[in-house]
Amino acid sequence: MNREQSLTAAFGQSGQAAEKPSLDDQNDQLERPQEQNQDHEELLEEGEQSWPDVVQLHQPPEHSQLLLAERTSCIAVRTYLRLCRLPFAEKTSVHAEFMTQGGRLTGLPMLRLGQFDILAEFEPIVNHVVTTKPSKALGRWLSEEQREDMRAMVNYVETVFTLAETHLSYVDPVNYRLYTARRSGGGHPWLLSLIRRFYKQRQAMRLLRVYQWHHLSADEVLDEVSECCEALLEQLEEQGHGWEGYLYGPQPCELDALVFGHVVGIINTPLPNRELTELLYTYPRLVAFCRRIDASLYGGKLLNEREDSGSDTEEECFQEEEQRQEDKEQKKEHD
Amino acid sequence: MEMTLGATLHVYKGEWGLPSIDFECLRALCLLRFTRCPMDVQTSSNPLRSGAGKLPYLQIGNQKYPGYRQIKRVLDLEGYPIDAHLSTKQKHLSSAYANWVFTNLHAYYHYFLYGEPHNFDSTTRGLYAKRTPFPFNFYYPSSYQREACDVVQVMAGFDVNDKMDKHEGDYLVVNAKKCVNLLSRKLGRKVWFFGDTYSEFDAIVYSYLAIIFKITLPNNPLQNHIKGCQNLVNFINRITKDIFRDEGYSSTKLTKTPSGAGESLTQSEHKFLESEFNTKVIAGVGAVLAMGAFAAWRGIYNQLTARSSTDYDGIDYDDDDLEEGLD
């Protein structure tokens, strides 16, 4: 029913949803769902649907329940929606993990559109935005082949990073005891939290078994992540826009949002065993790339809590790398 | 590049002209044959001996390497890497696309081969049971069904043990069809997916598609879809006929049709019937010993010894009476 209504709205009628001029106003708007901002008429293209007024992004509380893999997914979705300039309200729900359905990895965050539509995880949300709001979706300038490559990369990056984070949270004994076990109990009374803890651990091990990662050692997991990072670095360098471009051109696409979410989530989360964070710091160009997105979207708030070990900007990283390559060539000549 | 002598890869035997019926075994075989690695392939293998309870496994000397990942690592170290001829960019693309194909086809493969009860009971269980030695052929096929339960639960969100109308197989079929369309587009008219040279991605695609295409299941919606993509069919047939010319096996090609009773016997039971004479002698001696032990337990020896003891007791009494009479 919603679809029919919005299609008739698209064909020549005045649009219901309005473009929110700034993201600060969105909380006010949602407190008064009856009032509609009629300042702009949203021009909907053919076949497009209007973005609902009430859009909520649910995630578990960060200080007590949110695990690493879920946190990175939430940051990625938030970044993507901000890059698309689609308004939404962020809600913290204690029972967010019970509200979701679908999703093949973690199932969070959960996006609630209007009254009935529920979507979970990065890829389904992106697919929904691409099919219903193609004018706002990112990556429109890519050719068909490039878009297929990018989709494959999104899938690959999401799988590798989420599995590595799950492995690090549940299989690594230090992390599990000090970080994950407390949080996976989930704010319930003691017996229920114990049962939930075992249930979530069994689920995580089943996930790792299905993807054939359960028998990997910590070093092998780090190898997989570094292969993924190398692929991303190569993609970044191939673009040739120096230090101002994104992974697939001069404009950001969904892969940028995903990479940002995972890298920032890993760097920012205070895990007892920080091997993955240290691995990411060995790719300073990637960290600087994320810092740039952070500066433009979040005002640098997400990354400036941690001190980095290396250059601040990509320009400096680029120059450092050039220097290193020159040194290598000089050494070869000497030999 | 030294290959240790005595390296053997243990896999399940094939069917319908394919070298193996199992996805993991087929992938491992592709790794071997694409790189022309000189290794033996053993098709009558026991999963129990693998150390992980699953085929394929690689045995070099006394060391065993179960599972595709470990086999790939060993081959890379021994100097037969499958991605040797790819550029770095192609290697990354290969990993990305391999992961994408895994996401879309793995769930389909596991559900329609092992998860769907009708398919499993009529076709797949028999296939695996005939290739596993007695008595493990009762246990190991069900382990694949249990694994499929996990895969389907994680990737498709429903439980195989539920009733049939709760199985959401359509979602899997739609994703698998989209994946096949993409693969067909990517391959185009090329010989391999990355141009002139083979890659791990070719091995993975061949392993999934060849089995799904050739297997005769009651319910297999993707089979006709693959038939519609002529370039993929050519890809599968070319690799089967050229590279696996020696290993392809098809049970319908046997010229000797076995008798009705023979068809139901497994390979190990055939071996027993045709075994040598001295094995039968030992079996006969064993039977006699068993009968003797049973007889002893029943007390036949006690009866024999009881007769001899009464003779001994009966000697003295008559003489004593005679002597007393004389006095």
Automatic annotation (TrEMBL), chain A:
The keyword Mitochondrion applies. InterPro entries: Metaxin_GST (IPR033468), Mito_Protein_Transport_Metaxin (IPR050931), Sam37/metaxin_N (IPR019564). Residues 310-320 have a biased composition (Acidic residues). Keywords: Membrane, Mitochondrion, Mitochondrion outer membrane, Protein transport, Transport. The keyword Transmembrane does not apply. Residues 1-45, 304-335 are annotated as: Disordered. Residues 29-41, 321-335 have a biased composition (Basic and acidic residues). Residues 226-293 form the Metaxin glutathione S-transferase domain. Its main location: mitochondrion. It comes from the Eukaryota. GO terms for cellular component: SAM complex. It holds the Pfam family GST_C_6. GO terms for biological process: mitochondrion organization; protein transport. This is Metaxin-2. It comes from Drosophila kikkawai (Fruit fly). The gene is LOC108070842.
From TrEMBL, chain B:
Residues 25-145 form the Mitochondrial outer membrane transport complex Sam37/metaxin N-terminal domain. The keyword Protein transport applies. It is found in: Mitochondrion outer membrane. GO terms for biological process: mitochondrion organization; protein transport. Keywords: Membrane, Mitochondrion, Mitochondrion outer membrane, Protein transport, Transport. Pfam families: GST_C_6, Tom37. GO terms for cellular component: SAM complex. The keyword Membrane applies. Residues 176-239 form the Metaxin glutathione S-transferase domain. InterPro entries: Glutathione-S-Trfase_C_sf (IPR036282), Metaxin1/3 (IPR017410), Metaxin_GST (IPR033468), Mito_Protein_Transport_Metaxin (IPR050931), Sam37/metaxin_N (IPR019564). Belongs to the metaxin family. This is Metaxin. It comes from Drosophila kikkawai (Fruit fly). The gene is LOC108073205.
